[in-house]
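Researcher: Let's run the pair from yesterday's discussion. Sequence first, then tokens, for each.
Model: Starting with the first of the pair.
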Amino acid sequence: MFKRWIVAAIVLGSTTANAAGKVEQIRARGKLIISVKNDAKKPHKDPAHFNKRGFEIELAHAITRRIMGDESKVELRILARPVRLPMLSSGAVDLVISMIPVTPDNAGQCEFSHPYFSSGLSLLLLDRAEPISLNDLAGKTIAFRKQSFNNYAAELQRIGDERGVKLTIRTYPTFEEAVNAVSRGEAAAMGGNFVDLDTFRKANAGFKVNAQLLEELRVAVAVRKGDADLLQIVNETIDNLKKTGELKRMTEKWQLPYLLPAS
């Protein structure tokens, strides 16, 4: 029993030592390596793509400034979604900032910082339509753009099934075709991420976004499990940006909604 306790203490001490040295390792290397979706310079079918990428890169620079003392000492690695968290786990990158939702599945692969952004599942309606609740969707058709990863149609179907609301979901190849289905009356609304729908609404008259989210989804910085000191400094940075109002300013600068609670 005593030997087992000694072994456990040694393993715990080793783990703690490794975790405590992560920030020092980064500083010794001379740069912070962050995985991002891309640099926002390429066209994308996500209406708010440029805004979200710009906002996250500004956040990456703020975290780099806090850790390195110089925001230029960062390497932004553009990685495909399927490899971002595995690359984090392997130590190839230090952080992932890419609108990663805080979900149980994702939390099994990484540690999450305090949320830096909040959005969620919402509905795009014709401007003349009445606000709509989940129960109001019973018997109605909801349009969605078909997506490879963010399956908002499946999320709405799950929510409807859980609450006993029978609805019809129809997917379309593009965002524009899903919107046109609403305009023609083929669908009562278009479902999707609040940010994308709100960005479209701002640029196109005749539409509005439902005031109430059907499901909130918060996003956070992904940190490798065991890198406790790095997680702490990322949390401190986000908390300070929030406390000073800088996070809200950054969010609004990139024309994104600030939906995080005050506390």
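Model: Moving on to the second of the pair.
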Amino acid sequence: MSTGVFLAVLLAAAMHAGWNAVLKVRLEPFIAMTLVTGLAGVIGLPFLLALGLPRPEAWPWLLASVAIHLGYYLALSEAYRHADMGQVYPIARGTAPLLTTLASLVLVREPLAPLAAIGIGVLGTGIGLMSLRAKGAQFDRRAVGFALLTSVIICGYTLVDGIGARIAGDPHAYSAALFVFDAIPLPLYLLWRRGPAAFVPMRRFLLPGFAGGAMSLGAYWIAIWAMTVAPIALVAALRETSVLFATLIAVVLLKEPLVPARGIAALLIVAGIVTIKLG
């Protein structure tokens, strides 16, 4: 992985943490998720018109990704409904790169240097430690279950999009199409389940919604491009360093408790990043 790609993925990680923080605005998580994904599609539409659709061979992967992402949004929204961002986010994002590494080795058969594999393991351990809660803090078991389910889904759409973007031949056209089409299912689902009245509270949060949509689009667009020029497992692991940024946001902005063990976790994450780069 070149230094340019390495730094771009770290930037994507920061943006990913930012749009997840938007989900903790004073809106129900699922409604906030619908707002962010819908506006990400609006932002992506001009790019789709300019770039055009990806080649037909990529469409099965693209449609599969849209379906998998719907499950991701539902599972993540439920996890955030039961626990804080500082607890849910590391579990969901920490388990995913380990699963993706194993899956990419078996399914994609991408070679991975031993040092890079060690770095991914260290990084995953650090991310997992980030989920430790403060003494006396409540943590619903359902949140753990939904967070783990989210990690499995993340592994699924990461592999699908990594392969799909490579088949498309143009990761930018693939990304633009993905965000536009991905903006359709959630609003339809919300309309079906709750009716038009569910969209009314969104009007007060259009500005943070656009910010979240822009960060969501930018973060995953970079990741999709990176997976066409670097091993999927390495990109998947590096983008989960977003937990460092998420922890900072959770503690400073959202006033969630800081567990001392998270300092050790942060050091492990940094060590994992360095090891991956050296690998």
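Researcher: Give me one sentence on the second I can quote.
Model: The chain has a mean pLDDT of 84.
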